[in-house]
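User: Here's a protein and a ligand (glutamine). What would the complex look like?
Assistant: Let me lay out the input and then the predicted complex.
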Amino acid sequence: MDLFRLSALQLSGLMREGEVSSEEVVNSFLQRIEQVEPQVKAFLLLCPEEALAAAREVDRRRLRGDELNFLAGVPVAVKDNICTRGLRTTCASRILENYVPPYDATVVSAIRRAGLPILGKTNMDEFAMGSSTENSAFFSTRNPWDTRRVPGGSSGGSAAAVAAGEAPLALGSDTGGSVRQPAAFCGVTGLRPTYGRVSRYGLIAFASSLDQVGTHSRDAAGGLALFRLIAGHDPLDATSINTPLEEDVEADNFCENGLKGLRLGLISEQMGDGFAPEVKEKIRQTAALLEGEGAFVEEVSLPLTDYALAAYYLINPAEASSNLGRYDGVRYGLSERISGGGVREMFAHTRGKGFGMEVKRRIILGSYALSAGYYDAYYLQALKVRTLIKKEMEKAFERFDVLFGPSTPTTPFMLGEKVDDPLQMYLSDVCNITDALTGNPSLSIPCGLSPAGMPVGMQLSAPPLNEMLLFRVAAAIENMRPLPPLPEQVNILEGGQC
Ligand code: GLN
């Protein structure tokens, strides 16, 4: 049996029954990585020894009869902007190329404590700025369904690793779609939790009022289990919410309640022009399935969401320009000193050499939006729009339990197709921005394959703290329409430039 083909819960079940060891599971994923990684290129760093050591430790504890976490022994991949003590964490940037964090992010402490072996650190757009993983300073990751196409971004490495069977679970981060958009492009399940639900401590800051750690998994049950493991209050994160999770629901029977009477709103702005017919078709088919299960489905218009992208691309660069001020050649990573130069020259050379194009673009845009004279016209205005959008969403949630639509306007585009057109690139996460601005939880789930065989994603959003409801709907859809198996193309398709 190919263990790497199994979901996180199937693996956890086999280990709990004593059928397989965590060492065997980890070895299966390491072999799969060896086989497909040259084509997928999902990882910036692999740590097989550490993963095997963690697996053996779990196996020892299990034999001893210790009480173990539900997911103990199930390996996980971690996006490279999440700090891992002793493991290089680069943010896919030259400026942090040799940075080895002296501490673990809170989410990493949680997975280590629970005994999930870390397989490696996954590729991403530099500082999580991007939608295709082509902004990585090191190389581009490819989509396992067609290696000439992008996996999405910025958590493209995490989503591609799960899609290719290189890891059953992965951690990503979502500032404006970076978990959900690549989840959709790679045909996996991706959760952006409620803002504050999961600690940001140790997640390298991009835009702090938007950043959230999220999960990639093969299915809803795996995503829920990983989410439950990393969620919770953390005094080290000032925006962390102190509300307990619903404790009573076991990860394997959480979908028993079904969908009867659930009110689902299909966002009409996401079903119009600019959205690919094959994407809309899948969403409509799924809506019909949901109705068949007793859910009430109706279209809802959210006109203010048309302004979400513009507001996001002011707030996001403004916060980024401030957060990235810390990379000055003194405290972290790269330091470019030139003889005869002073401290200003050192700052300029370090930042000039260490940051890529997109990072510089955001710093320039953000500094402009925050500068005297423009602050009110741009940044303040964007904050007001954010508040109005939040109110519009709250109103919609008085009528609907869940809002849904496509996760992305199209299926995955070709490598190189949008790199020279930032606006087109920004538009590829137009569906994901609203929940990032409002802080609502949002889940992208696989919604079948297009006629060309590319994954389509459906996005479900709920009021704050209702992640469980999202997973319930996702699981119900999986019950009606089983998920596709791993893409086999990854083994045969060549091509796509790096
Ligand atoms: N693509 C979006 C951006 O570039 C989202 C990034 C993210 O969520 N980290 O800002």
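Summary: The first strand starts at residue 43 and ends at 46.
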